[in-house]
Amino acid sequence: MLPRTRQSNKPKARKTAPAPAKKKAAPAAQTPAAALLAWYARHRRVLPWRALPGQTPDPYAVWLSEIMLQQTTVAAVKPYYSKFLAQWPKVEALAEAPVEEVMRAWAGLGYYSRARNLHACAKMVATSHDGNFPRDEALLRKLPGIGPYTAAAIAAIAFGQRAVVIDGNVERVVARLYRIQTPLPAAKTEIREYAGALTPQDEAGDFAQAMMDLGATTCTPKNPACALCPLTSGCAAFAAGDAASFPRRMPKGERPQRRGAIFYAHRADGALLLRTRPPRGLLGGMCEFPGSEWRVDLDAEQALSAAPLKARWRKLPGAVEHVFTHFALQLDVYVAQLPASARAPLGMRFAGPNEMGKAALPSFMRKVWEKARSSLAG
Q1: Active site residue 66
Q2: N or C: which end of the chain has fewer CB within 10 A?
Q3: Together in a domain, 241 and 136
């Protein structure tokens, strides 16, 4: 008989399952400001007035560009900015220039009160601030031509102050981010509150420029490139699929159509009759060919009664057209050839060919000049 095997009472060792791996904590979501600044580091526009990474911004360059960019495109401003900076590289040089010279250099850029204020501001900075722009937003607003937006832009971009900078691009970005239903301009207060909450304490200048770049290149008025936007994860309008419909706007009223007559008096020695507009008001301080009032109900007889002197005036076919912010203008052009001995009426002057090349003529007066000159040449 085989002996019994003794069974051990010792429990068998159990195979223990490996401990579950600890889940990695999900990375904290970036704030909109951080996401936008990261995008800006890769996609920032290179602009003549913008400091490169690591460079200290020049307050004079920031101020000059911001004044020029008011209601004007970047493409239109670039050549004017370069010309001004070459001619007046420092604010003191601009302050010492005759205002007429500044107006001539500005001619064609439009909104001419900006040029007068630019010169007045340069004089104040040079004389009252020792050539240094104030760092404080409130002090900046006391300078000629500097309103809330420009003061905030200079404070943030030039001096790194935390300031809420809101232009048309920023309005559009914020209106879409929060899907603001209130139409502009009534929505401006609401947009400012949201923009203020978004603006970081540090890097406010880069943040302001990033918002502007985003609106100019990606969050555009039509066909926004939402797939390329760094803020889509938190954008209410993108989530709703209607980003292009923001910001809401009140319907625009019809722009009135005004008419006028312009008188191109060409003297035998090549001189042309000019006058200077009053320093205040539309096109203040600019040169022009004399003409009638600009009225909705102007007729031909009224127009001819405004002729600056007696001459055989000939009306040219067609009209010169120009659109201002609040009205559209059609100008009938009358030309007359005068002897070299003709004298200018009181308050006017004859400008020779050399002076005409430097005259501070607004862009639509240059249209008149080209039309009349072509007619006389033919």
Answers
A1: yes
A2: N
A3: yes
